[in-house]
């Protein structure tokens, strides 16, 4: 794993976090217990903080960043962020799901048990409410998620906790 200090700030990482080879975690970044940062991710908390909650996973090739002097990025607990996503100066509540290849722009919020579909572009300031599915470029409300879909998303996030544990051993 590669942790880099920047401007006097150094990443704070719980003891049981999995950070895969090639990932870069820079500056004012905190990562909660049981979280996982997968291959070739970049979490760049150089000019504002990034917080990643417990048991969240940030999958391969994802970039997480902030905006200079205005806002950091907050990723709650038990979040699932798919491969090659771009997460920029936004807030993901606990149990949020960001599909692979999606972009979440400045000031956006994805609430608990909400989902941004793969390949979507969530433009600045949009809010995906609890239980909603948004999709498209630009993303728009598509429909409500079913209880089965919400449970499947939660199970997928839990599956990454288990997989990260296997990698750690």
From TrEMBL:
Signal peptide residue numbers: none
Protein name: Gamma carbonic anhydrase family protein
